[in-house]
User: Fold peptide-methionine (R)-S-oxide reductase from Flaviramulus multivorans.
Amino acid sequence: MLTWKEVINFSVKGNPTPDKRVEKTEAEWKSLLTPEQFRITRLKGTERPHSGALCSIHEAGRYNCICCNTPLFDSTIKFESGTGWPSFTQPIKENAIKYERDTAFGMVRVEVMCNTCDAHLGHVFPDGPEPSGLRYCINSESMQLEQEITNEQ
Assistant:
């Protein structure tokens, strides 16, 4: 389980190696994404709080990167943070997320990105629930839910 100290270490000393890399030109990303998805994931934008489609969804499944389909978060670690963005306590794998220090807007935060394609996802904060104490605050537009299929017979 990742801790805040490990997150800070990744942001300062370097990130874990991803399983694979996906790189595309700006034109290729624009052709694959909606304008809002492009603005958020490729230009480091943010959606308005409580506006994202994934804020109130709690179906079982995985949340994958909208750009490269890399699994990022599992629905079992999603929680209601009251912030207006989908929130998670841990990534699905340690090397799924890339961390960078973000000093935009006069504050110091830790930006989180897809470690496979560098898509901007949101930020991580040390004010989440136990046991990790982490809150990954993620834009809905940067992910897609791959719902778990249940066998009902």
Observations:
- The two ends are 36 Å apart (CA to CA).
